Amino acid sequence: SEWKRPVIAIVITFLCNVESSMLAMGEWPYMAEIDHEASASFFGYATAASKAGNAIFAFVFAIWAYKISGIKIAMLAGRCLTLAACVMYIFVEFIPSNRRWWMLACYVLFGIGFGTSPLLRSYIARVSSEENRSTAYALQNGALNVMQSIFVIADDIMQIVGPIYGTAIFTAIGINYIHIINGSIYIVAVIAWLAAWRWLLPYN
């Protein structure tokens, strides 16, 4: 049906933003915990490098998609980069020293991978009819708002129960647990793209 491809793009948009939001939840505390030489300034530089990679490669991926008249390869490349970055992130504690630099590399790869996100908006424009395009964009924005609402509520809950139960939870399961969840979401997103591969139309 006409809505199959826009819905796929909307679902992937939601998953991509969940990935990004979950990563942002514990970055600085985690870096400071596993590398005591890491400073707030270094974390700022790492974040800036990630944002710069995102801005530059959003442009690169857009040109790439235009040149090949489709977003399949560009999107899958971005998903694979973020998946590789997630695997690197999981193994950061096995690095004997200078872990902050390993995390910097992960942040840059995450930023580059997230540079494919604007392609989803252009894809929706390509696969939706004029009368349904505004609805498709509204649903995509709604997916973003739902994701943001979930994390706002989760953050408020953590502000209340965190001081009471947070220490016990992280002592029991470790801070890596959130990154394992994030990695699982990356894997689901990559699988979703592979499953939707045959439905992604080239640009006309």
UniProtKB/TrEMBL annotation:
Keywords: Membrane, Transmembrane, Transmembrane helix. One of its GO terms (cellular component) is lysosomal membrane. It is a multi-pass membrane protein. The chain crosses the membrane at residues 7-30, 42-64, 76-95, 101-124, 185-201. It is found in: Membrane. GO terms for molecular function: transmembrane transporter activity. The keyword Transmembrane helix applies. This is Membrane transporter.
